[in-house]
Write a structure and sequence with these properties.
The protein has 130 residues and is of the alpha/beta class. The chain has one domain: Rossmann fold (3-Layer(aba) Sandwich), CATH 3.40.50. The chain has 7 helices and 5 strands; from the N terminus they run βααβαβαβαβαα. Strands 3-2-1-4-5 form a 5-stranded parallel sheet. Helix 1 (12-21) packs across helix 3 (35-44) and helix 4 (59-68) packs parallel to helix 5.
Amino acid sequence: MKIVLLADSRKNELLVNFCIAYSPLLANHLLFSLMNTAALLEASTELQINGISTDYSGGFDQLASRTMFNEIDAVIYLRDTQYPGYDDPNPLLKACDYNSIPYATNLASAEILILSIDRGDLDWRELVRD
């Protein structure tokens, strides 16, 4: 499965801890994140994360485009409710809703999502993607 791992700035430590705790499960999948987050996760875990460059077009927009074209199977995006842009429209989450791609925006739903992926509950995504 192709899984996106993201976090707002104040949630980065929480994402790192989540990845450490679930690294045996995450290691079985193709992982994506923005370049800086990918570097942070790789430095803190033994996971291989594909970093999306933010040089030419926003990395967030690249992930949203991949999601819109069903190239992503799940998104874990730990959001900070105190973040100034929290209520702004989010193209990544909108693309997930459009294509029925499961996403988690807090730790509890992230744990449910990763455990359901491990159980095989989302294997149907491979049929949709291929």
